[in-house]
Specification:
alpha+beta, Arc Repressor Mutant, subunit A, two-stranded antiparallel ribbon, elongated, GntR family transcriptional regulator, WH-like_DNA-bd_sf, UTRA, DNA-binding transcription factor activity
Length: about 280
């Protein structure tokens, strides 16, 4: 695993990246000791001073724990949990657990929403709110929210700094978020998201998209929130009486013979039985 001396990156960055990959891939699991400086020096073919620089970078990133006279250990990752199926936002969920979630507002302006948001909000006159959420100074998520402009007159960005949007909607506008749909998918960070979330381009993210209605069943918000997959865990409560919806996305139907329709129906039924056990 020698370093590539034709690579333009400094040697210590190459060593740090190789070890970082092993840590994030759990080839070096949390709590495991790293090889000694001498072993790493021989493995990568670099001076021990280069190894020390690499270790310092990993410690700064919170990936390893260094102690005088003791082996360097892989740090336990800090994980923050949110309940996906709750209408309450991240701010209120964290506050309920005594965690100090900070919010930085990147922008609030009138903007035409994307098609999915426009269809739900039933208006093209909306406000686009962009925020970053942090815990202990570490960025956890980037959130983009569209609100129907007519329902939140006079809304200002400074009202949302280190504050809950849902709480403000309830207290100031009398609009209480009650229910909605949520969708989670895994995506890769593009350059813009990587810069905002302080990760590398292509790193995995958990994208939570959702729509929320108020106590009057009227559209209140449509949002997309990108979470760092190495810091945020989505929890889902399951109960015995909960109803599970199984959706099977299929191509747009075309005219087919009756026999083909029957075969397709049987195949879908078999799949449904398999999913439901």
């Amino acid at each position: 695993m020698l370093v590539d001396r034709s690579d333009s990156r400094p040697l210590h960055q190459q060593v740090a990246q190789a070890l970082r990959t092993q840590i994030l891939d759990h080839d070096l699991p949390p709590g495991a000791p790293l090889p000694s400086e001498a072993e790493l020096s021989a493995r990568f073919g670099v001076a021990r001073s280069v190894v020390r620089q690499a270790m310092a970078a990993l410690a700064t990133d919170g990936l390893v724990i260094r102690s005088q006279g003791r082996p360097t250990l892989v740090a336990q990752p800090a994980e923050y949990r949110r309940l996906v199926q709750r209408a309450t936002g991240l701010f209120d969920q964290f506050a309920g657990r005594g965690q100090d979630l900070r919010t930085t507002v990147l922008g609030l302006r009138a903007d035409e929403p994307p098609p999915a948001a426009r269809a739900f909000l039933r208006t093209s006159e909306s406000l686009r709110l962009e925020r970053v959420r942090l815990v202990d100074g570490e960025v956890l998520s980037y959130v983009r929210t569209w609100l129907p402009a007519e329902r939140v007159p006079g809304l200002r960005a400074e009202q949302l700094t280190d504050a809950s949007l849902h709480r403000l909607l309830t207290d100031v506008y009398g609009l209480r978020p009650v229910r909605g749909r949520r969708q989670v998918r895994a995506v890769a960070a593009d350059d813009a998201l990587a810069g905002t979330l302080q990760i590398g381009p292509g790193d995995p993210l958990l994208l939570l998209e959702g729509e929320t209605t108020d106590q009057h069943e009227r559209p209140l918000e449509w949002f997309a929130a990108w979470h760092r997959a190495d810091r945020v865990v989505f929890d889902i409560d399951v109960t015995e009486t909960a109803t599970e919806t199984v959706r099977m996305d299929t191509p747009t139907p075309t005219a087919t013979p009756a026999g083909a329709d029957l075969d397709r129906a049987r195949a879908l039924l078999d799949e449904l039985r398999r999913v439901l056990g």
